[in-house]
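Before the break, one more example. Copy the sequence into your notebook; we will annotate it together after we see the structure.
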Amino acid sequence: MFRLRIRDQYSNRVFMVGLIVVLGILLGALVAYQHRQIDFMEFVGLTEFRERPFLQVFMAMNPQQSVQLLFGLLRLVISLLPVAIFNSLPLFLILAVIPWGASRFIQTLYDVKDFKEAHQFLHRNVFGMHMLKPILIVKEGKIAVGAGDLHDRIGGRCFLIVYHDSAIVLENGGRLTRVVGPSLSFMRPHERIWGIVDLRPQRWPFSVSAMTKDGIPISCEADITFKIDDREKDEDGNVIVKAPVKKEIDAGKVTDAEIMAEMKKAGIAEPLPYTEEAVFRAATSIWIRIHQLDHPEQLRYWTGRVILGDVEGALRSILMDYRLDDLLRAPKPGQEKPREEIRQRLAEKLQKAFSVDNAIGARILQVNLGEFHVRDVQDVGIPDKVYSQWIQTWEAGWRQRAMVGQIEREEKLAQVQATQVRAQAEMVLTLTERIRPLVNDTNDVTSYLLAMRFIETLRWMAYDPFKRAFLPPEIIRTLDELDKALDRTIVRGTEKDEALDKIGRLLLDRGVK
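Here is what the structure looks like once it is written out:
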């Protein structure tokens, strides 16, 4: 199909050139005929038909006269042919000089080494292609076959094969004309590739240098996966993702087995999903990063704009919200790691920046972060004094935060202890009220023993100054008197039952409140 198509186009154009040559010769013959003033009827020997119309002559001639007329015409053409060719020489010279001059101009202008290559380039653009050459193959986001050739640098007619993983933007005369996805097609005259976009997912691991909130230079490894945007909005404004579409190719129309094999190899029947708007935005998202023509990183294309223009800046702004301790601390139970928290914040920020119809035409697929590292002073490139001052400032802030944290912990501990002492004091008051009936019963030795144990417990509690502050003054005075009475009784050798009796009665007399 493709070969028949280009042969038909080429044959039509060659026929037009041949027709021009024939018309030129006829024009030369007509000029010679008029110049020689030949009497046609006399030349062919039919003078009796000189004044009669041609139709009457044709109807009145017998077979012998018809043969005589044909031979006369042949002799006339043979006699006029040298003069006609001579008269057509200027036309032939023009038809030869113009292509030669144009080919020489192309060779000089575009620094073509071979004159034949320049002439073939001109011939293809004027008459068309008569075979499937030259071929320009685009795959994996670059020109795989034909890179640097004349039809790549200048443009023009060629057979174009775009694999399933690429899309291109064509331009003609400095104006972007169309977007070509995975397909087999032809480039038009003066049309050339302006930009190539890789449709495959792009994975960019890179290192980001940033400053923490407390001024410490750190570095972090980021891993971003993105691709050409394949989302679009329907009539209701809902965002939908284009699924891979399998094109149906009629093998009956592709009569060339070589082309059919190339189509299967290129995977043109199963192109990766994309939108023409996203491809156009990505191809035109070019930054001039360095103003040096020979610098390898002079231009920054759409992949670099995603990383340098958005991801790197967003990650730096997020890291400035954290201190170094926050980044390196172990997560608390139930909390996420700081790295995971930062990753989620970065992913949310990038999803908003690269929404549908974004300026670059990209879609973020995955965001990953590595470990955080403190950078050396040699890598940062700052004076040692400034770096030391940063470290001292960080240490001072760290000590201050540690001291504040310690004070807060001690305060919480004191509150817990105070709560415990209050609970114990309330328990003592409750037990004091409950022990009165036991002390009143003087005949029960068990009651006196229980009162003795209670008094000893109160005494040990009174030894703790922190707990002593929560006991009422009456209980403290009663404990002191009970303690003195107990000591005096034991020193005099009083019997245990008698000592307990006196202590119990003293407790009753004072009336613990």
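The first strand starts at residue 135 and ends at 139. The mean pLDDT is 73. Try to locate both features in your own notes.
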